[in-house]
Amino acid sequence: xPNITKTLGQHMLVDARVLGKIIDAARISKNETVLExxxxxxxxxxxxxxxxxxxxxxxxxxxxxxxxxERLQFQNLELANxxxxxxxxxxxxxxxxNLPYSRSRDAxxxxxxxxxxxxxxxxxxxxxxxxxxxxxxxxxxxxxxLAAHCFAIERLFSVGxxxxxxxxxxxxxxxxxxxxxxxxxxxxxNLNLLFSKRNKKASTVAAKARVKVDFxxxxxxxxxxxxxxxxxxxxxxxxxI
Length: 241
Fold this sequence. Notes:
Layout lengths: L11 E2 L2 H11 L6 E5 L5 H9 L2 E5 L3 H10 L5 E4 L13 E5 L5 H8 L6 E7 H7 L10 H9 E9 L4 E2 L6 E8 L5 H11 L6 H7 L16 H10 L7
Parallel strand pairs: 2-3, 2-5, 3-4, 5-6
Antiparallel strand pairs: 1-8, 6-9, 7-9
Helix pairs in contact: 6-9, 7-9
């Protein structure tokens, strides 16, 4: 059995009950293509292959990829040894993943520029709280605003530490994502830049970027997701911020 790359924050799901709940939640039909991030030991991949027309699974770890090639013998499976979140031009209906904790933000930023039908993902509970954070709260981040603008997110169920190997130090949660808007990579870059000034007066930060708006005395981290995205989309000179 391959070693787990701890630097990637990998914790393999080993609980068959949770696995079944994820498959049920995904509601995959025989006409759909599923994209999976993180093949791992392939237990989720195998179940996806049983219900989908086609499964494309990405694994960045070379050893895990090679093990999956030997173990997973499905005619509707395509394995890739590459970083999915640096890949473009993919077509898929459903995204499913037990996301490595270290890649959760990358995954959501990548999904925000994709066209797909729905996603079922497992994330760290703390990250799920950030996704749901409201303007002005301490957990409100650029990823909160991006998620609120681009997705309708529903918490489905919690997953305990004992369901993984090795056991993580934190709790996890499975969420359903339905896309509502897409943005460009440039908008995401600008949004993150705006949040680097989160405690500054929003109108002043926008003015430095040559965007004329009046948010009164509100700070950047008090703006609604839609306002932040509009400013991020209007910025033409990031060096001025």
